[in-house]
Specification:
129 residues, two-stranded antiparallel sheet, alpha+beta, flat
């Protein structure tokens, strides 16, 4: 089974005080990056890591909204004021169970206030009915 594990960092969230939020030119602190790289290497050695990436803050993003229907999307450049939770990075993991991914998530060197969300990825056989 494959799972998507998303990092929802505190510094990307609109509810975080503005002075503490990631802004223009933000990069994660070097020490945090080194800790995360070690965690990622451990995932790879365990044979679970399919892919991973970190994402820039909302300021550099865009959102394409299809609320008005197909063929008529609205494009909004970041930041998105209505966003409540913002993904800052992700892992795609191959695992035997959700519980196995949860155990790895507990080991993640996340900062205080960060959240990890885990979601199973649909496989082709899920649509075979």
């Amino acid at each position: 089974m494959r799972f998507l594990m998303m990092m929802i960092p505190r510094v990307y969230q609109p509810s975080t005080p503005e002075a503490e939020r990631a802004g223009e030119g933000f990069t994660p602190p070097r020490e945090g990056v080194q800790e995360m790289m070690k965690f990622n290497e451990e995932l790879a050695k365990a044979g679970m890591l399919v892919s991973l990436d970190g994402l820039h803050p909302l300021l550099k993003g865009a959102r394409v909204d299809f609320a008005k229907g197909k063929g008529n999307p609205t494009v909004l450049d970041g930041p998105f004021i209505e966003a409540k939770e913002v993904v800052g990075g992700f892992w795609v993991l191959e695992a035997d169970s959700k519980e196995q991914v949860v155990e790895w998530a507990r080991r993640c060197p996340a900062e205080a206030g960060d959240v990890l969300e885990i979601r199973q990825i649909f496989a082709l056989e899920d649509f075979a009915h």
